[in-house]
Amino acid sequence: MTKMNLIFLIILSKLFLVSFGEPTDGFIEVALTDENFEIQKPYDNPLEKRYSFENGTHRVWVYADDKPYDPNSLTQPHTEIRIQGLDYWLGLWQFEGSVFVPNGT
């Protein structure tokens, strides 16, 4: 390795180390209200059979034989929480959440 290559690698490694910050750098926390949440669930089930919110935790249930959220939809069974009013086209987003899928489901 030549002296010039070594200098280049040292400079490159310093740039590499200082260019990375915390994953949340540049983001601001946005509080969500009930109006920001749209729950899509099977059209033939009441909301409480597929969704709950207790102690700060949103829970959804999906079963293999569930119907789509709309009788005319071609989507597969799903229950989802959609964030509305703060759409992605406004800029870059980062979402933080935890997901638990029980074994055998």
TrEMBL record:
Keywords: Signal. It comes from the Eukaryota. Residues 1-21 form the signal peptide. This is Uncharacterized protein.
